[in-house]
Amino acid sequence: MTVPGRRSSTFIRLLRSGFTDPSAAARLLDTDALAAVRNDPVLLDALGATADPDLALLGLVRLAEAQPDGELPGLLDTLVSAKPLRDRLLGVLGASEALGDHLARHPRDWLGLVTYEAADLHPGLAEFEQGLAEAHDPVTLRVAYRRCLLSIAARDVCGTIDVAQTAAELADLATATLRAALRIASAAAPEDAALCRLAVIAMGKCGGNELNYVSDVDVIFVGDSAPGADEGKALQAATRLASHLMRICSETTIEGTIWPVDANLRPEGRNGPLVRTLASHLAYYQRWAKTWEFQALLKARAVAGDEALGAEYIAAISPLVWQAAERENFVPDVQKMRRRVVDNIPAAQVDRELKLGPGGLRDVEFAVQLLQLVHGRSDATLHSGTTLDALHALAAGGYVGRADAAQLHDAYRFLRAMEHRIQLYRLRRTHLVPEDESDLRRLGRSMGLRTEPVAELNKAWRRHASVVRRLHEKLFYRPLLDAVAQLTPGETRLSPRAAGQRLEALGYADPAAALRHLEALASGVTRKAAIQRTLLPVMLGWFADSADPDAGLLNFRKVSDALGKTPWYLRLLRDEGAAAENLARVLSAGRLAPDLLMRAPEAVALLGDPEGLQPRTHEALQQEVLAAVGRAENPEAAVAAARGVRRRELFRTTAADIIGSYGTEDNPAEEDHGALVDRVGGAVSDLTAATVAGALRAAVHSHYGDTLPTRFAVIGVGRFGGHELAYGSDADVLFVHEPREGVDEQEAAKAAQTVIAEMRRLLQLPTTDPPLLIDADLRPEGRSGPLVRTLASYAAYYRRWSLTWESQALLRAEPVAGDAELGARFIELIDPLRYPMEGLGEDAVREIRRLKARMESERMPRGADPTLHTKLGRGGLSDVEWTVQLIQMRHAWAEPGLRTTRTREGLAAAHAAGLIPTEEAQILDEAWVLATRVRNAVMLVRGRAGDTFPTEARELAAVGRYLGYAEGTVGEMLDDYRRITRRARAVVEELFYGG
Q1: pLDDT band at 608 (very low <50, low <70, confident <90, very high)
Q2: 12: which DSSP letter?
Q3: What gap in Å lies between CA 686 and CA 833, rounded to an integer?
Q4: Residue 521 contacts by C-beta under 8 Å, 6 or more apart in sequence?
Q5: Helix (H) or strand (E) holding 244
Q6: pLDDT tens sequence across 828-839
């Protein structure tokens, strides 16, 4: 056979063995170092069985070339004759470039993989301590540590030990390393060692016996004085020893580093002393510690130093850990911790994060630890620092369903195995899944996926991550349903007491009532109960994510009771992905939206329609209302029909507002708060206009049939005319009429008065709906003037008597109902008043400023905080609106863009015209939007209007959630409001009072 033929044959053989670069592999096999074994088929097969044959072969060549004189034959002979050594050595070389580098630097360390005794298969702490016994400085400690790590990696990649055993061995090696480092530090300062007692407490994964290949080793140091020694000097000595221990492990030498030793979990973190006495530790934990610190102490384990002192520490802090769930702030702390923030992860990395990303390792660890804190106070079987052991104990005790625990167990092991293999490659601390195809191929093959390693790895990873993403449903809530449903005899379940403890920990203020609701919804063998048992674990989690979970669950029960026999209701929640979450958000966000839904439960269907939350046009609303009024038998029925439309559309608007503000799992919260405010203001204003039009049609029809003796129009003013109505706003209006041809003026006036009286009567009929009050106090002469005027009367009044404030009020006048042509003529009449030619004179400007100052001093409610009053307070709605309106009256005659009834449009037009600088315009807009959102939030939460923040804690927290603030940050919310409005007031002082 020709040489090219032989090379071609070798090329194909290498390719079939899994080499990605057969040409390079062939060159490596041709090196002198491998001359004795290059044609050995056993070696080629063994290389092909590794995670990365190319890497394994390169590492083997480097190891062979580094062998001391005369020792290469021994390596090669053992390699081809001893399968255990061959699998171990090549397995490590194919999985870890870093350990290949170590073997090249220390070529005799491969001998540590030859022995195959029982102790070698499963070494413990004693064996690792023996392996590090001869280390006498940081360099020799690193070499000995890597030699021990090599043996762990060999057992891991060959499958001799599983992922949990690997993590436990790594923790044992870390323990032995800490002891060796303390021995070296003590030998370097024997006088310090003689003065003190020092115990090293492992925390985190090391404390939990579940360490990674490369991870910070979290510790806490406890010190005391040796007999007869001064305590102060002893603590100083202990601090020097602890600092030296940390440097020995953490500093980079010619042999690299081991891992950072992190003592930041100690009391007061970095700001606290490195070493404290046991009494000092206890004093801190009893008085100052936060919930997360007790959560961290779940894994505390004495590992090095003074054994008796370490045991005393564990015995002393253990009761405090298991009493943490009884602390006053446990529930809000848990809620804050549950909302794990991934904002610090770069957006491009979130989907590759094994630890912190959605469906990551931290999710499982946190959830298990939370359940341990909640139930471990009464069940000592849960007192384990190891995640998988604790999960098993939770399942055995009935705190978690066995099937769910098994799924999470498998998912956690898979994700940890991925993490181990990723870190093993270069021995670097990372939790990111690689993007490079070759890295993914090696990772997949290292986990036993050989057919299509990259595709199989991604599929398995996504599957396990999706299981973890639903873990709150599986771990927290499904056992609650099992506890009340009582369907499967003989299965261990949560006791009522344990179920109550869990609900309390998840934010439910009345666990007993919550359990009653769950039992009513989920008990029994009906199809309805079965669907509820599927829905409720997810719904309970969404309720718990709100400021008032109890209200969410109660409202869900009410809606379910009202619609329980309707075939489409539960099917909608089960089958339409967004409907159930949307409903949960709406039912737990306050009183207004649930109250609206209770009076029209069928409106829940809107939550499952992708277009269901979009606001309807003014034309569509008015057409529906007028059609419903036209079909009614009497005016009372007509207005009831109009109210029915209003109720449904108000629910649509509130639901869209809540969901847009809270966000959902698939759609984040709306970032453009101004757009949210505009949508609400426009939708409520259009709906109010349609309702007024319906009431007008009903009033006319009941007294005059199809034609009123006078033409009649309703003009919206204030927020109504500005398309800025809030949920609780009155409808400010003016009424104008014009007698039809041949109709006596007195008869026309009487007809107009009659219609207005009837409209008001109909709109004020007793009802459970939110009231719609029509306020005509902005008419000429205010309450002293006639309720309705003819167009000619308005013209005469404005020509002769009009005051500056009346012209200002007309800035937001816009026809909303009735005769459109008459409304247009009214606007034509008032335009010269509100947009005066050449602008306002100085006297008029002074008058407006005087009125504003008077309003600030006289209309602020007694006892109200002026820094938090959204309407009349500093930098609030009134400040911004009067500033914009003054600019309109001064400049709209020359700037057509300022001729708008809407505040934000007027502000934008003033900026576009160069009348307000960019920064000042942004400051005013931000303050106006925020104040408007606060007013909307108060109405959504309390079910009644208010101009300032609620004082009740849950209501205030709910307002905060609507505004985007996490649990426990209402102080930050109030500070932000004061800061934003304070800046706005400074702009108002300059533009309104000073300009």
Answers
A1: confident
A2: H
A3: 26
A4: 529, 532, 536, 556, 557, 560
A5: helix 231-250
A6: 999 999 999 999
Per DSSP, what are the bridge partners of residue 198?
223
pLDDT digits (tens, 9 = 90+) for 615-657: 999 999 999 999 999 999 999 999 999 999 999 999 999 999 9
3-state SS track over 91-118? HHHHHCHHHHHHHHHCCCHHHHHCCCCH
Note the pLDDT of residue 870: 96
Query: How far apart (Å, rounded) are the C-alpha atoms in residues 469 and 350?
Result: 14
Q: What are phi and psi of 92, to 5 degrees?
A: -65, -45
Mean pLDDT of 707-714: 96
Asked if residue 61 lies in contact with residue 87, where contact means CB atoms within 8 angstroms, the answer is no
CA–CA gap between residue 341 and residue 357 (Å, rounded): 9
At residue 199's C-alpha, the angle toward residues 194 and 203, to 5°, is 155
pLDDT tens digits for 768-814? 777 788 999 989 988 889 999 999 999 999 999 888 989 999 999 99
Q: How far apart are CA 453 and CA 461, in angstroms?
A: 12
Average pLDDT, the chain: 91
- The answer to whether 150 touches 112, Cβ cutoff 8 Å, is yes
Task: Reply yes or no on whether the pLDDT at 341 is more than 60.
Answer: no
Res. 344 pLDDT band, cuts 50 70 90: low
Pairing relation of β-strands 217-225 and 261-262? parallel
Tell me the C-alpha distance between 903 and 925, whole Å.
9
Residues 6+ apart with CB under 8 A from 132: 141, 144, 145, 148, 176, 177, 180
CA distances from 2 to 6, 9, 152, 214, 402 (A): 6, 10, 46, 50, 64
CA atoms within 13 A on the CB side of 374: 26
Q: Of 753, 761, 848, nearest to 807 (Cα)?
A: 848
Which of 120, 125, 144 has its CA nearest to residue 133? Answer: 144
Rg (C-alpha) for the chain, rounded Å, is: 38
Mean pLDDT, to the nearest integer, of 39-48?
91
**Whether this model's pTM surpasses 0.85:** no
Orientation angle between helical segments 402-426 and 97-105, nearest 10 degrees: 40
- Collapsing DSSP to helix, strand or coil, 427 comes out as coil
Give the separation between CA 979 and CA 973, rounded to whole angstroms: 10
DSSP state of 539: H
Rounded to the nearest 5 percent, the helix, strand and coil shares of the chain are 65, 5, 30
φ, ψ at 221 (rounded to 5°)? -105, 135
Residues 431 and 451: their CA atoms lie apart, in Å, by 25
* Residue 301 bridge partners (DSSP): 202
If we measure between CA atoms, which residue out of 599, 570, 564 comes closest to residue 583?
A: 570
